[in-house]
Structures are given as C-alpha cells and as structure tokens.
Amino acid sequence: MLDEDDRPVGLRCSDGAVEVASLPEVRVRRARALASAIVKPFDRSAALVFFGAVGLLGVLVFETVAAALVLDQNLVDSFYGAVKTLVTVDPNPAVKDGPEWFKLAISASMLIALLFAAAFTGGLVERLIGRRLTGLLGRRAVPRSDHVVVVGLGQVGLRLAFAAAPLRHLGGRHR
Questions:
Q1: Confidence at residue 80, expressed as pLDDT on a 0 to 100 scale
Q2: Which helix (H) or strand (E) holds 54?
Q3: Residue 149 near residue 125 (C-beta atoms within 8 A)
Q4: How far are the Cα atoms of 6, 37, 67, 109 from residue 102, in angstroms, in the given order?
Q5: Residue 13 gets which letter from DSSP?
Q6: Rounded to whole angstroms, how far apart are CA atoms 50 and 41?
Q7: pLDDT in tens, 78-119
Q8: Pick from 36, 20, 18: which is nearest to 28 by CA?
Q9: How far is CA 33 from CA 7, 11, 92, 135, in A?
Q10: Number of neighbouring beta carbons within 10 Å of residue 160
Q11: Considering the entire predicted model, what is its pTM?
Q12: CB atoms closer than 10 angstroms to residue 68
C-alpha cells in the first residue's frame, strides 16, 4: 500500500489496535537485511566461512597497503607479496630488508591469517559434511566409522594422510 505521498505503508498491531505505519525505503530495508544477515549468520558453518573469508580479505588488504607504504613497493608487487604470504607459499622477500617493527607486524598478520584460514576451512568442511548435504541412509550417508577427515592436502595434510593409512586396521571392522 502507498500513502498520499507514494511512500510504502503497512499495518502495525500494538496492544490489540491496528494502525497504519510508514515503512522504511527499500534501500534502507535492504541495508538492514544485509546487516542482520552479517551479524546473525544462518548457521555456524556459514558464520565460519563468512568471517574467515572476510578476515582473509582484510589481511590481504592490510599487507598490500602496508608493503606499499613501508617498503615503497608498487601496488602490483605488494599485492603479489601479500598473496604469496596469504597462501603460505613464501613471505614477501622485501620484508627481510624492512624495519624490525614491520617484520613483527607482518609476522602477527601471518598468524592471524592462519587463524582465519583455519576458520574458513573448518566452516567449509562442516558445511560439506553437515546434515544438510548428507543423509542418514543411502548414497549420501556419511560413513560413521573407518574414516578420517584431513583438511588441506598441503605438506602436513599429505603426510598425515599417508601416516594414518596404515592405522586403518586398528579402528574396527576388517575388510
């Protein structure tokens, strides 16, 4: 419904009385809905994935801007160094020659990025093996025994998977 000024209105019930009340503009309602979706995510796995991704993006922006300002790198080189650090390939090589306080700040940033990556990965794994995507019976059923979930197949994950393979026979049924 629209009022005489062509603004949207709705009905509000308070203490048994019904009254006409104006509604906020569509943009305000969309912004409010987006803010509530961010503050109150749908479930725990969605919150972990979202806040992990936002945290990783924040670390990427911080390291890019910091390297550009402190190390006098252009944006492409500082972004490249930040991405290398974020995906744990190699730290930005120019940080070695930078001031000590910057080395400490980047080291703290790397540890924080590790936490955000763990949260993101944990939320993603929980989403993938959660009850919504799996079933109790049938083809989509999650195995209840004789399995291990290894998150990440980097050097550590790959070594863990190979180390756990000989231990399969200790867990229960033998095939």
A1: 92
A2: helix 44-70
A3: yes
A4: 57, 36, 9, 10
A5: E
A6: 8
A7: 999 999 888 877 778 888 888 999 999 988 999 999 999 999
A8: 36
A9: 19, 20, 39, 31
A10: 16
A11: 0.60
A12: 18
